[in-house]
Backbone:
């Protein structure tokens, strides 16, 4: 794993450039996307680059990592809604080529065919990840098998607490999600992970200095052949 340390502004811009490079080299790239606070700066840079004509997303295909069970795509905390308002609504992407797991209705059937659907497009070329304070990636919480594909997951208590900042009340945070598995993520050809803030420092230390164990889901990335970790000083502070 490569590590790049810089301000949130700097690392967001660098990751955006990786996406721009990828899409300009292969206009029908398959991109793996994340939600949450971490990728917001990256998405803002992509919107800007698209408006400036530096990149076009019109042939791009996207797959998102996860979705809360119980929230439909119009709910303002659903990940489909997040992707629309923070990226898709502002770029020239064809929304029919954007895939987000379903949180309601036949969500299980959709989840069960998600990995095959990704494979049918040739697999993910470039995947962006955030990381949970407990070391989760997507919603793969501690204890998730390394060979997991897309599945239903129970959110850890710490994740519910972390994510409650975005809801009116902690009781509104869904307790379950559908998520790409650890193996689904490892199938991506290239991975970039972004982490900022002291709340992520322990997870980053475990990722970069800890053992590879299912108790630390992100530690599986130690085996990925092309994975770069982008951190700010605070998230990196326990590593030095
Ligand atoms: C979101 C996702 C999660 C987040 C993680 C960090 O699609 O997969 O693993 O990346 O919970 O969230 P933030 O960025 O809000 O700190």
Residues:
């Amino acid at each position: 794993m490569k590590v790049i340390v810089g301000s949130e502004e700097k690392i967001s811009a660098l990751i955006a450039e990786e996406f721009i490079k990828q899409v300009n080299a292969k206009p029908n790239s398959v991109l793996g996307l994340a939600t949450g606070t971490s990728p917001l700066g990256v998405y803002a840079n992509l919107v800007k680059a698209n408006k400036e004509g530096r990149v076009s997303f019109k042939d791009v295909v996207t797959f998102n990592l996860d979705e809360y069970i119980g929230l439909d795509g119009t709910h303002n905390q659903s990940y489909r809604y997040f992707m629309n308002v923070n990226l898709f609504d502002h770029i020239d992407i064809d929304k029919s080529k954007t895939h987000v797991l379903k949180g309601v209705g036949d969500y299980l059937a959709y989840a069960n065919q998600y990995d095959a659907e990704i494979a049918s497009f040739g697999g993910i070329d470039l995947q962006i990840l955030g990381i949970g304070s407990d070391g989760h990636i997507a919603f793969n919480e501690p204890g998730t098998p390394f060979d997991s594909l897309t599945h239903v997951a129970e959110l850890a208590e710490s994740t519910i607490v972390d994510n409650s900042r975005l809801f009116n009340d902690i009781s509104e945070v869904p307790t379950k999600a559908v998520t790409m598995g650890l193996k689904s993520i490892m199938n991506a050809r290239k991975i970039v992970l972004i982490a900022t803030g002291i709340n992520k420092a322990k997870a980053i230390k475990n990722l970069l200095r800890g053992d590879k164990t299912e108790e630390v889901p992100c530690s599986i990335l130690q085996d990925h052949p092309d994975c770069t970790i982008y951190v700010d000083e605070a998230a990196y502070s326990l590593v030095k």
Residues 8-25 form the longest helix (18 residues). Residues 2-201+211-236 form a domain with the Rossmann fold fold (CATH 3.40.50.1360). The chain has one domain: 2-201+211-236. The pocket of fructose -6-phosphate is lined by residues 34-38, 65-66, 130-132, 136-138 (CB under 6 Å).
